[in-house]
User: Fold these one by one.
Assistant:
Number 1:
Amino acid sequence: YQAKRDRTGVEVYESKRDSNTPDRLGLLGDLRRALDAGDVELHYQPKVRFDGKVAGLEALVRWVHPERGKVPPDEFIAIAESSGLMPHLTEYVLESALGQVAKWQAQGLKVPVAVNVSPRDVHTPGFAGSVAARLARHGVPAGALQLEITEHVLLEDPQRAADTLAGLTGHGVKMSLDDFGTGYSSLVHLRRLPVSELKIDRSFVARLAVDNEDAEIVRCTVDLAHSLGLLVVAEGVEDDETWERLRDLGCDAVQGWLVAAAMPPEETTAWLRARGSRGWRRPADVAAEA
Ligand code: C2E
Ligand code: MG
Ligand code: MG
Ligand code: MG
């Protein structure tokens, strides 16, 4: 999909270029209505450190279409991005995530939450200020919010992106670089982005235990990130062997089905409470102790 942009860099929806227009337009309308009706939900997936401490939760959007069932986020996010609905979706997600953080805070659960934002958001004028205002309205400290961005934010108008990100970090919001290694990664980009965390894409993590080249890529990424003072999170960790390799390579935290899949809010609350101050422990370690 090649987006056409107007002079201000805003994407213009061009129906002629879209192969399945009726379908996409139908889904777009349904998504808009679902957002208005509050029918879109957030699930939360833990990021845990190797000592078991819960470093944070990532909010992942979930939409169950009344006729089609679960629509994968990658699919409807692409539609939202190419149609101009993205800022609305992001507002919805931020609002919902911050409301949940405030609830957890009131229950004594102090856990930072990461929200994914699209390049479109970062290029929306006033984005940094609107995030700060939203935090204030919910009484949530900026340090409890992390925003996950990708290198795509630098594809167009890098200066505006840099200004927005500087505005956000200036307010105390932490930035995380998602899907590292998949797109336009370069050292120049990394230096330009005011991020405090780097997430290694699942495509490198998945075959880490069996593929020497992937293991080398992960090793170099961890070393590079550490030399720049960044924390490193590996995404998509599904088994013990991968967990052990990542620990040995000096990675800081993991996220993946080995720990937990993304869970609805109430289940997340129960998960956090059950782990308590001891944090998450691998089933293998629990079994070894018993
Ligand atoms: P992401 O931010 O890289 O999120 C990680 C994806 O990997 C999630 O897919 C998560 O469910 C999945 N995952 C987590 N652990 C494992 C594992 O161990 N194995 C495997 N195979 N997969 C795992 P999901 O929820 O389908 O989201 C896909 C993408 O959609 C996200 O990738 C993110 O780019 C985007 N997305 C999700 N929610 C939002 C949102 O609220 N706003 C925006 N702008 N994008 C979002
Ligand atoms: Mg993410
Ligand atoms: Mg990712
Ligand atoms: Mg990804």
Note: Residues 45, 60-61, 72-74, 77, 93, 116-118, 148, 178-179, 202, 235-238, 255-257, 262 surround C2E (ligand 1) (CB under 6 Å).
Number 2:
Amino acid sequence: KILIIGACGQIGTELTNKLRTIYGKDNVIASDIRKLNTDIVNEGIFEVVNALDYNQIEHLLEKYQITDVYLMAALLSATAEKNPAFAWDLNMNSLFHVLNLAKAGKIKKIFWPSSIAVFGPTTPRENTPQYTIMEPSTVYGISKQTGERWCEYYHKQYGVDVRSIRYPGLISWSTPPGGGTTDYAVDIYHKAITDGKFTSFLSENTGLPMMYMDDAIKATVNIMQVPSENVKIRSSYNLSGMSFTPAEIAEEIKKHFPDFTIDYEPDFRQKIADSWPASIDDSEARKDWGWKNDFDMENMTVEMITKLKENIYQ
Ligand code: VAH
């Protein structure tokens, strides 16, 4: 049985739907701090749980005979900069609870998301390798880098089967993003449909690694399904689908909306984005567990516009 903590978040929502489809609704327990998404709450088993409450998590593990936990609860980069102490507490202590429950033999397999935010301003920015300088300058990035160190430690010292992916910026149509620096790349599609114009909070040439949500979910399911011996890296795997700048994604959107216009008003998130890589080398994931992306900027743009028109802006 599977428990998803943070099931109402940007990734958690789509991950819950996918896992319910693959494993059956009765084998997937969705949980979050509040009933934040009616579909997730109504379309399967849902429990309110505080990711910082060890006893609440332990109780769910026993109540449902859970074997696998996907810990998707966290504060993302922009929000974390506004709440450093709580971001550190939530991002780190939720991970320690799950790692310690696994060490105690109460969880068989853990998925924990890391991020390209573990890299910092001294990291080589183009085609950033799996192993390189990592001096993250954001609270979120520091928590993800530290989390990776603990995941690797618990695997090596206690045999905990924890698996992790350094997600790039994720783009989805069905769930609003929550406090990320890459979220402009989601909002731009909504504004292209509703307003025909968009003001980007990142400057036009800010290249960032990105991925369509379907690819991120595929990778997450995939890394959890392969045999343990295939998962050779137990900190976290670099992963990427594409890289683009606000100007480049605007050009792609103009192929569908010729009159679409974009302007730029960089805000505090520019400094965060400037500290991150522009592109990622994910060859280790491709080698160890067969990762490959299906979406690039072109087919993602077609998919986003189609889905938004069909489901949200009929
Ligand atoms: C954020 N979307 O912006 C997340 C992600 C690499 C970006 O970690 O914080």
Note: The chain has twelve helices and twelve strands.
Number 3:
Amino acid sequence: LPRVLSGIQPTAGSFHLGNYLGALRQWVALQDTAEAFYCVVDQHAITMDWDPEELRRNTLVSAAQLLALGVDPQRSSLFVQSHVPEHVQLSWVLECLARFGEASRMTQFKDKSQREGAGGSSVGLFTYPVLQAADILVYQADEVPVGEDQRQHLELTRDLATRFNGRFGDTFTVPAARIPQGAAKILDLQSPEKKMSKSLPPAGCVFLLDDPRVTAKKIRSAVTDTGREVVADPVGKPGVTNLLAIHSALSGRSVTELEEHFAGRGYGDLKKELAEVVLEFVTPVRARTQELLDDRAELERLLASGAARAREVAGQTVRTAYERVGFLPPV
Ligand code: ATP
Ligand code: MG
């Protein structure tokens, strides 16, 4: 079986539709055909300002949501990044192979560092893609299911793996990105020129755990375009196209079919129906997440067993990599 690794930040507590349609839906689907390692990347969540109590809470909420969405701990290893110290151990070696210039070219770093205040951005925000490379390489992953926005980071991961292998001998599998078609990039409802993101103002971001009334309101208030016809046109009508893409991804009906369905009707009808489609999807996910959170001991037990399985694989990789770079093995 091919091996798959992916991670998601617990920063906002709730995941959003972009996370689900761009990445998490594939996590669930891949469990049938791959050996999967899925983690809540809490260490990535401290690269920008954070609150410790909130981080702890959001880590649990994230794990519960993943289970509610269909990650199955019998078939996949689900764990918390900080429970597997091998990620950081490998990351140091990769940091010493990565070049300052290549890390400086990461567009997410440029975007996010601009949003930081007068204190400037952390060194962790800068080296974050290298830790992400370690997250992936430490499992010898063949594939990484992610959204379109992660393509550049995946390219860096591949470069670092290739560089290490070239210098120290074949050690790492060079992973491929697995980016879904159609829903690879869900756009913000208020600023449809940007990707939907938890780091933008919440009005444009549909969180899975939002109150149903909030969800309906966000969709009703989505920015649409001039004209009145419900047709997909990424350049002329990015807002409407995005709403159609979300509808199509959740309802399973093609965009062409939806254009016919909405022929002669307006944007209001599209939004009303989309709100129904979204609520039908999120309502059971919310309920299940709450149930799982109600039994915290069981949730923590699942995460501990996922981490134990992950450490078996990750420990082996770190031992090999440390030996190859010349660290004296501890006896
Ligand atoms: P941030 O904007 O702070 O980076 P995020 O919303 O991108 O947060 P992440 O935890 O960084 O959340 O991403 C988790 C996964 O969701 C990644 O695989 C990423 O590619 C995917 N993803 C995030 N936003 C979108 C989006 N708008 N459309 C499709 N996929 C997305
Ligand atoms: Mg992101």
Note: The mean pLDDT is 95.
Number 4:
Amino acid sequence: EKAGYDHFMLKEIHEQPRSIRDCMRGRIYPQEGMVQLGGIKEYAEKLRNADRIIIVACGTSWHAGLVGEYLIEEYARVPVGVEYASEFRYRNPIITERDIVIAISQSGETADTMAAVELAKERGATILGICNVVGSSIPRLTHGGVYTHAGPEIGVASTKAFTAQVTVLTQIALYVAQLRGTLPQSKLVELLTTLQDIPLLVEKALNCDEATRYIASEIKDATNAIFLGRGIGFPVALEGALKLKEISYIHAEGYPAAEMKHGPIALIDEEMPVVVIATQNSSYEKVISNIQEVKARKGRIIAIVTEGDTAVKGLADYVIEIPHADEAFLPLLATIPLQLLSYHTALLRGCNVDQPRNLAKSVTVE
Ligand code: M6R
């Protein structure tokens, strides 16, 4: 059942080229610059006229929501708020009938996310779901939705469900952009063409198994780690930190790279691994100066870089290359080495990778 892999997590990491492809099947038409999402097309008018979109989720699904915020605001120009379901439900939130609430949940059974959906529904919002488990509770509560079709995810640490959620959110961002006319047709064609090829690039990103295993052997005795990213790379840093802490029990924090100097920089010394998302995109130069700040304090830099990069290579202690693609697709590619880095680190520390202590696959209590 593990298809020859030692753990479900490793199998699920390697399934991602396929699961991402499954998630796009019948939904994108690159040549026409068109996205079709059957499960939400009934709400096209609502999406066209929405004042804002509120995303509710927990854990890794919440990180996917942050990526969604970036993509929907960038391409569809609708304001997006991303909320921890557990905070949203107890806050007497302001919700109107012109709001769209998107609930993201792999299991479709997370208690807090369900309660947030019920609350928003009572208050008249249109509720859409992004879930993986077909027929689970959240899809039954929502008005419409888009399944991720990633297949069963057994490892407690979410991997292929995350990349599928991000794939769905990318499709929703481009669908709403198409409805609202916020992107030139040529840009839609270009982005959808790249999206269609993402499974091949993810396949390439998976080549870092050896490199991540070596870096894992170098950081396995650390007690703390920091993950830094900017823009769309920030939620990737959060996700990398969550993966590491949940399966290796190394305390890890994700931070927006520029926030480091407002506090966490005090933690940096030669013992501290600092994982930086340093790919060539709009924040590249800024990230390089953040790397220099870490280096000046003797932090050990592990950088995720674009294939062929030289500037970061000259500064970092370790680099992991990922293929080049438009910035919109950074989360789908940069998350892959972080998943593998956590996996190998946990393994070297003798941890139970698939079933970390104190955690359940779905959190059905509040
Ligand atoms: O099933 P859900 O997506 O609603 O679950 C949400 C979180 O419990 C989940 O993502 C959790 O954070 C994972 N163990 C992270 O790997």
Note: Residues 207 and 322 are 9 Å apart (CA to CA).
